[in-house]
Amino acid sequence: MGSHFINPTVDSDSAYQLLNPRKFFSFKRKPRCRLEAICLPCRKVIRVGSCGDPDLEILVNGYGHSAQLIRSIEQSPDGGAFSAEFDYPLSDETTLQLAEKMILSWTLNRVIRVLNESSDYQLGDIIQYPFWVGYSENPNQQVSFRIFDAVTGRIAGHDVRDGFLIALKTKNLPSH
Question: Which residues lie closer than 8 Å to 34 by C-beta, 6 or more apart?
């Protein structure tokens, strides 16, 4: 199974402008900021459409335990400044459960015709999703960080932030 990278649309200069240390980090003096390119592994799941329904593509974030519908995304085998540092942590069963839960939530929150109960799901490749992480250290040497989606340019939600922390902890655990 291959691993691909989603092509970011936000470059490092734009990410630093989004970071705007004075806006996000409330320090009296200008904080020292550092920007890092990271990827969190996601798994693509396809819900095969039936009775004229289109196929739906879902991206399951392995560390954030969240899922989102995706449309067309540009992918490449090379991440450029972004590297694949973390392995995908979820089992196939858990991945499919998260995808099904997201589809159910999506269906209940929209006025659409009912999706066929006997849906067929197919697991796809691991896809590395790019984020920009802005770190800042305050005068007390405490580190704060913000995560920006490198595709949309939006601040990442709690699930991504928590997933990033879990990925860092997992990566730094000693192996037995």
Answer: 134, 135, 136
Give me the average pLDDT of each 10-residue run along the chain (176 residues).
78 79 55 81 84 79 88 73 85 91 74 52 88 80 83 88 88 57
What is the C-alpha separation between 128 and 42, in angstroms, rounded? 6
State both tokens at 73.
């995304």
Other beta carbons within 10 Å of 44: 20
> What is the rounded CA–CA span in Å between residue 94 and residue 157?
21
* Cα–Cα distance measured from residue 132 to residue 36, given in angstroms and rounded to the nearest whole number: 6
Predicted TM-score of the model (pTM): 0.73
Q: How many domains does the chain have?
A: 1
Range of the domain at 62: 3-172
110 φ, ψ (degrees, to nearest 5) = -135, 150
Q: Where does residue 55 rank: exposed (0-12), middle (13-18), buried (19+ CB within 10 A)?
A: exposed
- For the chain, the 3-state helix, strand and coil shares in percent, each to the nearest 5, are 25, 35, 40
C-alpha span between 54 and 32 (Å, rounded): 48
